[in-house]
# Entry
Amino acid sequence: MSDSPAPLTDEQLTSATRQFLDHRELLFAIVYNLLGGVADTEDVLQDTWLSWSGSRERSPGRHIENPRAYLVRVAVNHALTRRAAVSRRRETYVGPWLPEPLVTAAGEEPPADAAERTLRTESVSMAMLVVLESLTPLERAVFVLNEVFGYAHTEIAEIIDRSPAAVRQLAHRARGHVHARRPLYEAHPRVRREATERFVEATLGGDIGALMEILAPDVTVWTDGGGKRRPAGLRPVHGRDKAIRLLTASASRGTGQHLDLRYRRVNGDDAAVLFAGTAPYAVIVLDLTPDGDRVSGVYVVTNPDKLTHVEPAETAETAGTAENAETAGTAGKRADA
# Structure
């Protein structure tokens, strides 16, 4: 006689699925902040679903009082487990590693709900994710849950199975580390859009004088090709003079491809996306100085494996808007982003 639990009924499965989907947006945002990759995040969500549905099969009569808290705890712990494998992959990664960009297609309506809109945008800025990479996995989990999603220390203690005192200590270390490297400043979208347009025009045009004005003296440039695109730099480049040499040399080498420029929102910020035909070729995100006048960080992702979730140009465009006509103005520039 088998002791294995009876499979879920259709009604139970429908209820479990609905509860999981109700919280999937939150789970994706939290896990993406912990791992920085879409594929890894999707794998963790799959593991979370299997744990969730499996628990329902093992105890079909069990009532979970707070499915949200249960799912967040399961997802975070799966993410912490996966973090070790992610770190091992980074050890052999070619060149600088950047998070996989989340690109919002032109014409895509933002979520109507303010909380959901925050999950998809403000919580996942490229610059912040780069800083979070320098934290330990537990520090990162505590920082993300507390600072980004507003969980109390006592709630986080239950999620990661630590004492509230230990969580407070982790939070203190993480907060000090992040704030020392990431000014608490967010540029106005209009300021960021104008800075992005000026930077891209100067870079693709090889205008050294304009780049001298746009780039901060201590600017840093990250170029993530993962060894699958002609490398512009195998490590981050620091300082305006070195950055200009890198950027102008990359643009002047040319790719033999006709690259079209489009502006998108990337991880919630206005950014630039270059397309080779309809295929995404590069994503360029800027970080600005606290006064918003200059560029302090340039993040360029060209690794094709990290661009698979970017909508192709022909489907990402809305039909014949004035903005699309303007953003196509620099189409035809040849650059090795």
